[in-house]
# Entry
Amino acid sequence: MFGQRRKRVVVVGGGIAGSLIASGLSGHEDLDVICLERVGATDHMDAGTGLNIGPNAIKALKAAMPERAEAIVGNSLAWQRWSIALTSGRVLMDLPLENVADNPGIRIRWAELYALLRKPLGAAIHYGAELTSCGRDGDGLFVVYRDKSSIAEKRIDNIDLLIAGDGRYSKIREHFVLLEEPRFLGVCLYRLLFPAGAECPIDDYAQWFNGPNRLLAFRVPGDFVYCAGSFPIGDDGIVTEAMKTPAALRERYTPESGVLCAEAEYLVDAIERYATRIHWARLQDGTTRYDAGEGVLLVGDAAHPMVPTLGQGATQAVEDACVVVDEIRRARAGSASLSDVPRKVSGRRTERAEFVVSFSREATDTMLAGADPVAGTLKKLEPAFTTRLQKLYRDVPVPL
Ligand SMILES: Cc1cc2nc3c(=O)[nH]c(=O)nc-3n(C[C@H](O)[C@H](O)[C@H](O)COP(=O)(O)OP(=O)(O)OC[C@H]3O[C@@H](n4cnc5c(N)ncnc54)[C@H](O)[C@@H]3O)c2cc1C
# Structure
């Protein structure tokens, strides 16, 4: 068992990975768990969009934190099918997930998910607390953060385990590893959440292509539709204002016949109506790294930035959290030092995360400039792809 001083675990970022880790460690009296979250208690980053979480996250969460799994599943819609068609209406693929997974995934709104994950944290999460610097000195690991309620900078010393759940632009990764230039894939991805309305033809997860230009949509709880559109961009990586106009977007998805199928017409109509609410982004990924030195652990997007093509960013953040909580519990139960947790998590997670990053990148093939979505989708029905999909959805980490 540990010595007399409570071991201090600081989790920076109350996002997917950070919130789950902090709640998974709550109730352990010998741990002093502090979660620092930049946004305020009622603000939600990207609250205006939705996401699908893969069957693998639910399977891993059920095994490691069943009460968290129950809360999330109970407040979401099941993700049970993946269909792909052309915007003209020709269906290319309609895959029941039960063929490749042990359980469904979920569909949910970001705001709902963050609220569910942060709710059990109580006083352990400090909102409006933005990490400004971190490092290691004579007293060990420390962080400095700006507390928005007092505008003052505060410092936490003697940290036994520092966990970076601060996302893709992680200050902790930047300090302890290096600032990595993202790898851009030359694809613009934009997101929109809007009320479904009475005649909504959208239900479970589906995609519609016109050349490499893609619409993706599904319903989320609360009678909303989440839509993510994409199109290739030039080598300069610039998304111009002209590309963002409703007319230009409609043109991208309109097939040669000039007639969109009912689902694509519904989505393009919504894109036109809600154009000013769209969130714009570009596809990018980076290298995988969990262990940032003794006592410093990277998780989620800070550890493995990946493209969202297979809906695995948040999904892998959930898998990470399950393993991290398990490793910390094991360290508490035995005599292992918390400073060794990063190495152990890295040993259990790196190969799988690298597989998911590269699989997600490969699955983006039909969204790249010049791609043929028909040939590319037919390849996704072959064993070379479906076997890897089964590995993705079924081979999840379980508590040791
Ligand atoms: C367009 C798009 C669509 C996506 N769709 C999906 C999808 O459908 N399914 C899926 O699984 N994934 C999806 N993702 C990926 C997903 O958003 C991320 O992979 C996931 O949120 C990563 O979780 P995380 O816990 O690492 O970080 P986040 O959830 O990003 O949380 C990071 C937290 O850290 C906080 N923070 C950051 N800096 C600081 C600081 N200095 N101090 C204090 N707090 C800080 C932030 O406020 C935030 O709350 C998508 C991503 C994009 C861009």
The mean pLDDT is 94. The two ends are 19 Å apart (CA to CA). The pocket of flavin-adenine dinucleotide is lined by residues 12-18, 36-39, 45, 51-53, 130-131, 165-167, 171, 189, 191, 281, 300-302, 308, 311-315, 317 (CB under 6 Å).
